[in-house]
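Q: Got a minute? One more chain.
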Amino acid sequence: MIEWQVMNLPSNFITTIDLALVPKIKRDLEERGFTFTHPPYTIFQAKKRGISCTLYESGKLMVQGKDKHDFITYYLEAEILGKLSYSYPEAEIDTSPHVGVDEAGKGDLFGPLCIAALYADTKQITSLIRMGIRDSKKLTDVTIAKLAAKIKKDFIYSIVQVFPKRYNELYQSFRNLNVLLGWGHATAIEKILCKTHCTDILIDQFANESIVQQALKQKKLSVNLSQKYRGEEDVLVAGASILARDAFVRGLEQLSNDYQFTFPKGASKQVIKAGKKFVLSHGTQPLRTVAKLHFKSIDEILS
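A: Always. Here it is, folded:
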């Protein structure tokens, strides 16, 4: 049985571990470059720059140091504790069955806009927490791809992937990005409602609350919609963010393969430079099939 406890002091994290795991922990820490000493009443003390781990004979493990966060979240919780009580304090976890919704690609000149919805019941939410689900912005694309594959295998989800050609057509119709996003969220919700009867929906708030509500009304969908700033703190919204980001990355790769051209992410000067290069090699007309034309960057690319 693994127990945990977080001290009030932010510099310390204390947990109780199964002593049968000591050989594994020692091997893992050695591989991660820790050096060992053996102060009184301890099994070991392991240190490396920015992190100190002290395992007492009682089974208490104390982790300290300015770099402890990633060590706890990506190793200790995922491989030893089997739960994310440090990352997601129990008091803040909504374990009631619901649907989380999030998007990716909104701020990227090239590639699709992707909106994902993810459903889980109480037991499945616990599984997602143990899986290490967190806001996709804190994860690498490689990790996102692995987590997205696990989610798709075991959970009910929907993904709306709007490639630039269709995106530009929709934008011309809506004439407003938030209205387009509202349509995308409502469409993802509509698709997942066909797979589950759960109508409790949580989305990461991106605009006035009425925008998504109006889009749902137009689709004649009746749901209990909640919108939360920093919605990715909810594990289902975080899971949806992973699915959406994975769909965006895959979509961008698809466009790169179609045109034999590397499309960078974001909307930086590097992206503008790539856009100019694309126009030189493919012309201006194909730009509408790879880029979101309402971005101000388009004017710089075509100038």
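A: The chain has two domains: 3-87, 98-253.
Q: Perfect, thanks.
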